[in-house]
Design goal:
Belongs to the BchN/ChlN family. This protein starts with 13 loop residues before the first strand and ends with a helix. It has helices spanning 30-36, 48-58, 75-78, 84-98, 111-115, 120-131, 151-160, 180-192, 226-234, 247-261, 266-291, 305-315, 330-339, 352-362, 371-379, 389-392, 401-423, and strands at 14-18, 40-46, 68-72, 104-109, 136-141, 171-175, 198-201, 216-220, 238-239, 295-298, 319-325, 345-350, 366-369, 384-386. It has 424 residues and is of the alpha/beta class. It has three domains: 14-21 and 280-423, 3-Layer(aba) Sandwich (Rossmann fold); 26-147, Rossmann fold (3-Layer(aba) Sandwich), CATH 3.40.50.1980; 171-261, Rossmann fold (3-Layer(aba) Sandwich).
Length: 424
């Protein structure tokens, strides 16, 4: 198991910043959630801007029929001159008549619907009563006001928890959306250890919703699920604290925490993980030559920053200058903070102008930031990595460890190639 450094960042002071922030809208979470939940539909109650955002982010062709849409609030709705609730009921009825495959319908709040205080919670209760038992209607907020984009998934999963059935026996619940291929790899490793009773939130289909109760233990695969964890805890579930499963070290520590909780012996664990661990180490080594000795600066964006900084410093040889996160849930990222070697500034929240000044002064080899900051920083000679790509790309567990390291190595290799071409 990973050995903590002599002095980690678990007790390091946190620079708390409260100023102007660069954030991406929480509606973006729909892009990966609608692919994960195969019989769910996400109806955003918002403006045409919301519709354009989703269309652009998803890259959906105009004649495709995805499982998300926008119920457009017109000027009359925003002015309070029309009953938006009646119009919403009509749109939901038309949608369900046209798409009988829908089993879960999420009414997703947006900045416009929240500004006019449209009560989507009440609408979800009313529509659930109308369309039950075939369709369950739930509500959550995907608004980009004072949130970061991964909170869309957190809000969605937290909204599902109160409706989950009651569990009467010990069970393992894995919380956090993973690409199907990665989830299958994870479940295969757990089955090989003899852990069969495993459920996932979100489930791929509404009929497979996990049960939860006082004998449920929860392992998170995403660090941004603070509200989901709180909702599961209120249902009696108990959290398994562990580093997040990024890279060889993080994956092994996460799996061992789960295995130990479920009564797996050390010999069985070693037998199951030996081969994939070796593959992960070889794959990381192929990219870490580019990363070793380089400095990295994280702007707060996805909430993946702390576990990724742990991966880059301990497994790829990078030096972290600053690790900024929008929010720091110590119950979730505490184990990663303990493993992160002492040295970087740990910041929570953002005052973007002050942080830009610190990044310019540090001149890191690699800056991980949002889309809005990347091009300006590139124009100043800093090499950047889009934070959002780390959410959309499969990066968890052993088989993706090399790809994860490669995502950070690629911009550095590109810069070096351009430098050599310019010198010729």
């Amino acid at each position: 198991m990973p050995k903590p450094p002599a002095t980690g960042c678990g007790a390091a002071p946190v620079l708390k910043e409260r100023g102007q922030r660069e954030v991406f809208c929480g509606l973006t979470g729909i892009i990966w959630l609608h692919r994960k939940m195969q019989d769910a539909f996400f109806l955003v109650v918002g403006s045409r801007t919301c519709a354009h955002l989703l269309q652009s982010a998803a890259g959906v062709m105009i004649f495709a029929e995805p499982r998300f849409a926008t119920a457009i609030l017109e000027e009359t709705d925003l002015a309070g001159l029309a009953d938006a609730q009646d119009e919403l009921d009509n749109q939901v009825a038309q949608l369900l008549a046209r798409r009988p495959d829908i089993r879960q319908l999420f009414l997703v709040g947006s900045c416009p619907s929240e500004v006019i205080k449209l009560d989507l919670g009440r609408a979800a209760e009313r529509l659930s009563a109308v369309h039950a038992p075939h369709v369950r209607v739930l509500n959550y907020s995907g608004s980009g006001i004072e949130t970061t984009f991964t909170e869309g998934e957190d809000a969605c999963l937290a909204a599902m928890v109160p409706a989950l059935p009651e569990a009467n026996a010990k069970s393992l619940l894995i919380a956090g959306a993973l690409p199907d291929v990665v989830e299958d790899q994870m479940l295969g490793l757990l089955r090989a250890m003899g852990i069969e009773d495993v459920a996932c939130l979100p489930a791929r289909r509404a009929d497979d919703l996990p049960a939860v109760g006082p004998d449920t233990v929860v392992a998170l695969v995403q660090p941004f699920l603070g509200e989901t964890l709180a909702a599961l805890t209120r249902r009696g579930a108990r959290h398994i604290e562990a580093p997040l499963p990024f890279g060889d070290e993080g994956t092994t520590a996460w799996l061992w925490a789960v295995a130990r909780e479920m009564g797996v012996d050390a010999n069985t664990f070693a037998r199951v993980t030996e081969a994939p661990r070796a593959r992960a180490r070889r794959a990381i080594a192929a990219a870490s030559g580019t990363l070793n000795g380089k400095s990295v600066f994280f702007f707060p964006d996805s909430q993946l920053e702390i576990p990724l900084a742990r991966f880059l410093t301990r497994e790829c040889g990078m030096d972290a200058v600053e690790v900024g996160a929008p929010f720091i849930h110590r119950a979730i990222v505490g184990p990663d903070l303990d493993l992160l070697p002492e040295g970087p500034t740990i910041s929570e929240g953002q005052d973007v102008d002050k942080q830009l000044d610190r990044a310019r002064a540090a001149r890191p080899d690699l800056t991980v930031c949002g889309l809005g900051l990347a091009n300006p920083l590139e124009s100043e000679g800093l090499t950047t990595k889009w934070a959002i790509e780390l959410v959309f790309t499969p990066v968890h567990f052993y088989e993706q460890a090399g790809d994860l390291a490669g995502l950070f190595a690629r911009p550095l290799r590109r810069k070096e190639k351009l430098r050599l071409e310019a010198a010729e």
